[in-house]
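Two proteins were folded this term; both appear here.
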Amino acid sequence: MSNKFPICVALPMYRSKYNGWIALESLIRQKEVPCEWELVVAEEVRDCFGEERVMKYSDRLRDTGCGSIKYISLNDWIPLSLKWVLIAKNSKSEYFLLQGVDDFTQPNRLKETYDIFKNTNADWVRSPVGYVYDIHSNIVYLFDRSKRDKHPGGLNIATKTDYIRSLNNDFVASGVDHWIFRMIKLTTSKVKIFENISESWKKGVCTSGLNRISLKRAEQMKYQRKMRVFEKTEINIKDILEEEIINRLRESYLLDSKMMSGSDIRNK
């Protein structure tokens, strides 16, 4: 497949009726993006955010350099692993940015990731540290990947789209970033990892309390705090996000909690 765009922002959604806006709001705030990019969304029809609402962002996304928006509607649930592969096969880009639907990504992510790929020929880009905002407790935690020895994960992960296109159709619903990394290692002799150590991460945040994976994240954080992977901070969320976004997060948390009451927890 010929690459038309340097960057694909891959955005899988699942039951994102009340939180699909989070990633989109952060994408329209991207700064100084040096190239044209594409957005590919894959989402099941159940409790969906929907194509119409995604497309309402088209003009503002275009202002940041987005040259194409593709929305893939799924009648039935598929695991996150297959969503990444599906998005990659529908992408016309060289580089593949894994975007969590409940992550308010930092404003320089596209620029910095593109520059890293072009200047280093990296296979795997990640941020080693970042904030996680627990909406329920109103606490901001600091995630530090260095506490997880040899784990390939991190935040703001990106890789080459060809690697994702060539992945097996494995049924993987959790730990998917680790699975992707292991599969890439099977196809290339050595994966060149580059850690983005820019401090731009301080203006982005992952959320905990929304979305199917982050409903599990509270227990994961509780366990990993013992290993100091997540540490409680005194940071005020108002120092990271605009008040309008904070208010919308809290409103979405209440609506999403009601929708998910008694429901199954599957994937992002």
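Next, the second protein.
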Amino acid sequence: MSNNYQRTTLKNGIRLVSERMPQGRAVSVGVWVCAGSRNEAKKQNGISHLLEHMVFKGTKSRTAYEIATSLESLGGHLNAFTEREYTCFYAFVLDENLSQAVDVLADLVQNAVLNEHDLQNEKRIVFEEIRNLQDSPDDYILDIFIRMACADHPLGRSILGSYESLGKITKQDLMEYRKTYYTPDNIVVSAAGNVDHVHLMDLVNAHFSSDSKVLASQTPPITPGKERFQKVHLPVNQVHICTGAFAYSYKDARKFPLLVLNALLGGGMSSRLFQNLREKKGLAYSIYSFADLWSDTGLFGVYAGISPKNTEEVLSLISEELVRLSDSPVAEEELQRIKSQLKGNFILSSEDCQSRMNRIAKMEMYTQQYMTLDEAIDAVESVTQEDIQTIAYDIFKERKQYTTIIEPSQSR
């Protein structure tokens, strides 16, 4: 275990993790609420993200403008984001301003006033966010792909929600959702940078409620969707393809071979997909693979943006690459190159306190265990040719694939 990593569970149930980086003057601190779109009722889809917006509109002691200037005036940064299984409110500040950052974050999470006028305004803003997503087919297709794979399970619903579901959410709904999920037992506070753990613990104890409450039941396990192929017609010029299958959870030890496979297949300019479909054949401007890892499952997939005339050829070539990984061992030289690439990525990201803050928070939320950078590198180094072939076979041959295509409307 790193001497710079520390973990404490406070009396109120908040889990506090920190990693000290004494060589700099910056600190990144985040308040992670272990609830996202997966925790929403169908009729309230989008409430997690809407609440994330609403807390910035004012608290009992700060106006929206005062929130906006609270850390910016110090040269810092304040923001938030919502994912399927968590919502994060975070700040990036000088070490001398950590107290102000914790104060502001605690105020947002606990004391937002959630008034009706702001709610209507924020709904309009989120509607614009939805329109923006729908105008970005390379992003929108991932939402469609996940929705098809996860069927009607909450994990498959859009983080942003829909016009219909958002339109029905009330102030009371927001207050009840906050009361249910924004509790100390369901919060991880994570910090990385030039931070002292004991000082951070004192700040969190001072600014967060001492009330403790056991969280209600979690969502049921996922049942994979039965529909395997879907075409969507939109007013676009390109065809957008997303194809893939269920993979592994964040806590599954096979995630390290999966990370190696992902980097090898579509994780950069030197990857097989990029080299073969873009550089050699000129069939795609954008092509990559991805792995989404959640608490109990995950999805692995490939995205490509292409000319309509190349759809069948590209689908065939992607399939060939997937089959090749299943049927033929990766050359040792290629495997070592990918391992070196991942090692470099790990080390470079560890130089950034915001990346480290994110990393230790996710480890705490998903595994309650800390893995040092060296241990993560060792896990990658231990991946064998057989490991790659085994998980490729498991994902691409044993599991049924899902394919989503966005193509131009006929009128274009």
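The chain is about 45% helix and 20% strand. The radius of gyration is 22 Å. These notes refer to the second protein only.
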